[in-house]
Amino acid sequence: MTLKSFFILLGLMLALTGVIGLNAPLSDNAAARSAALIAPAGDAWRAALPADPEAATAAYMARLSPAAKARSDAYFEGGYWLQLWGFIVTVLACWAMLASGVLNRLGAALERTPLRRVRRLLLPMAFVLLLSLLSAPLAVFQDFYREHAYGLANLHFGAWIGEQLIGLAVSCVAGGLFLAAIGGLLRRAPRNWWAWGTGVSLVFLLVMLVIGPVYLAPLFNTYKPLDDGPVKSAILSMARANGVPTGNVQTMDSSKQSNRISANVSGLFGTIAISLNDNLLNRTTLPEIKGVMGHELGHYVLNHSWKLLMGFGMIMATGFLFLRWSLAASVRRWGARFGIADQPDQAALPLFAILFSAYVLVMTPLLNTQIRVVEEEADIFGLNASAEPNGFAEADLQLTEYRKSDPGALEEFFFFDHPSPRKRIFSAMRWRAEHLK
Ligand SMILES: [Zn+2]
Fold first, then answer.
1. How far is the CA of 160 from the centre of ligand 1 (A)?
2. Which residues of the chain, if any, have pLDDT below 50?
3. Does 295 lie in the same domain as 247?
4. At which of 301, 336, 356 does a domain end?
């Protein structure tokens, strides 16, 4: 592939992105539509639920209309294939960069300018930028067209592109810094870079966990303190009861992007904030909010950020060990063909990305399971903290908007990073049954 054909390909991909985006079926009032697909129920219905957890769970699930279930299954199952497509697109984009030698040329061009001193940082940034632009058609299909087709998104195309550009700037800087650091380790510690690389990855994730909620999230949404009232007092009461040392409860305008209900408790070193989005405030009742916030407080109290960091660390360590072997073998096999001198050569970045994406794809079930296990813990913590099994079950029923309600066991193991709505409703009904006695 010549350099010229590479840039023609890049132009075509950007044009395709525009065509897909401009032809997306913009969703109309999705919240109203999806609400109509779940049969409403009142306190009398909930009080009359059978004690038996299986029977009570079945009663909840029966409120999901066949149309809603079919739509939710189709949306979520499509996501399985999109993971595979994401990998294929990454491989093709990286191959185009290797075959055209675009990074070698860019590196050589930078050598001739005063920018050569920061060449080792600029080249990884350019790599992240090119990879993102070449994958843009899949991104616009997956995150814009399809979200609108399923009535889950609210941004129009211009506003969506604006957010994507902010995200792209962040990932170019963060991804560029990370890849430059790994490249430095490859040069300086050719034998042990995988161990140092694991450490660097963990520090990097930690920094993102600390700065993300404070500096990155406000780039996309406006945060403001939650007004005093029954919701805030209920949340703060649960926080005090469970030793979460903060009075900071805030809300953000997520409804501009989507109708998804969401919340979190963020912060690691004394910057703790309890956040709940406006969708949760507007679409659910106080018992539901308490059920959801009990779960989020659980993540904080049970130190899930630290536990997941350790779990990811182990996956990163094996991944870098795999790369230490496979990158060396790939450079030996294809290095001459693609003008790659040795492993630390930055022209090898696309090879690195292909091998790492393959590893992540294979590890997806393990990553999902690590997260799903702590999510189940948070569910149980939340039920104990809020004592709102019906509130939690109602909120879980709403999550079927974007998560398949009742998958098979293997399917859940492979693809679910949260327990399925049916499982979560069952946990709630099991708690309820034991507390009715
Ligand atoms: Zn959670």
1. 26
2. 32
3. yes
4. 301
128 lies in a domain? yes
Q: For the chain, how many helices (H) and strands (E)?
A: 19, 4
Give the alpha-carbon dihedral of 307, 367, 128, 267, to 10 degrees.
-30
Adjacent-strand bridge partners of 225? 250
**Ligand 1 center to residue 375 CA distance, Å?**
5
CA gap 141, 150 in Å, rounded: 12
Beta strands at 273-277 and 249-252: parallel, antiparallel or unpaired: parallel
**Cα–ligand 1 centroid distance for 299 (angstroms):** 7
Predicted confidence at residue 63, as pLDDT, reads 96
Contact of 261 with 395, CB cutoff 8 Å: yes
Q: For residue 359, tell me if it sits in a domain.
A: yes
288 and 317 co-located in one domain: no
Residue 277's DSSP bridge partners are 252
CA of 369 to the centre of ligand 1 (A): 13
For ligand 1, a single-atom ion, the residues with CB < 5 A are 375, 378
Instruction: Specify the pLDDT at position 30.
Output: 54
Kindly state whether residues 315 and 280 are assigned to the same domain: no
Which among 151, 122, 165 is positioned nearest to 17, based on CA atoms? Answer: 165
Measured in angstroms, how far is the CA atom of residue 300 from the centroid of ligand 1? 10
Range of the domain at 369: 3-24+49-221+302-436
- Tell the residue number behind the tokens 């299954």, with chain if given: 73
Distance 146 CA to ligand 1 centre (A): 24
What tokens were used for 28?
């109309």
Alpha carbon of 296 to ligand 1 centroid (Å): 6
User: What is the whole-number distance in angstroms between the Cα of residue 267 and the centre of ligand 1?
Assistant: 15
Q: Do 296 and 317 belong to one domain? A: no
Q: Which amino acid is at 417?
A: D
Round to whole Å and give the CA distance between 193 and 238: 45
Distance 295 CA to ligand 1 centre (A): 6
267: left (phi over 0), alpha (psi -120 to 50) or beta: left
Query: Rounded to the nearest whole angstrom, what is the distance from the C-alpha of residue 433 to the centroid of ligand 1?
Result: 23
- Tell me what pLDDT residue 36 has: 56
Q: What is the pLDDT of residue 32?
A: 47
Q: Are residues 279 and 411 in the same domain?
A: no
CA of 227 to the centre of ligand 1 (A): 24
Taking the centre of ligand 1 as the mean of its atom positions, its distance from the CA of residue 243, in whole angstroms, is: 18
Measure 395 CA to ligand 1 centroid, in angstroms. 13
Do 9 and 36 contact (CB within 8 A), yes or no?
A: no
Distance of CA 389 to the CA centre of its chain: 27
Cα 404 to Cα 400: distance, rounded to the nearest angstrom: 6
Query: Where does 212-285 have alpha helices with state H?
Result: 230-241, 278-283
- The two tokens of residue 437 are 């006695």
